[in-house]
Amino acid sequence: MEYLLVQMLRQRECQPNVWSINSSLRAFDNRGQIEMMEKCYEKFLRAVIEPNIKTFNILLDSCGKIGNYEKMSSVMQYMQKYHFSWTLVTYNTIIDAFGRAGD
Fold this sequence. Notes:
Elements: H1 2-11, H2 18-30, H3 34-46, H4 53-65, H5 69-81, H6 88-101
Helix pairs in contact: 2-3, 2-4, 4-5, 4-6
C-alpha cells in the first residue's frame, strides 16, 4: 500500500505532505497494520515533513486500540517537548484508551 501511494504521488508530480502522512497513517491503522504505520511515520519524519496535531491523534488512537501505553506515553512526551497543544480529540482519545484498559 505504501508503495502504491508513493507511485501515485510521483505520477501526479505531488510531494508528500502532512495530509498524505495522515491519510497513510489512518489507512494502515484501519487495516490493523500498526508496524507499517510506524515505519511510514518514520519515513515521513526522515523526509522532514512536519507532523500536526491530527498526526499525533492518529498515533495515540492506534496505540490506544492495541493497549500500547508506553508508545502512547512517548507520543504525548513528544507533543509536550515540541509544544503541541492537546485538543478535545486528543483528550477524548486518551480517555477512551484508558477506559478500555479499565484505568
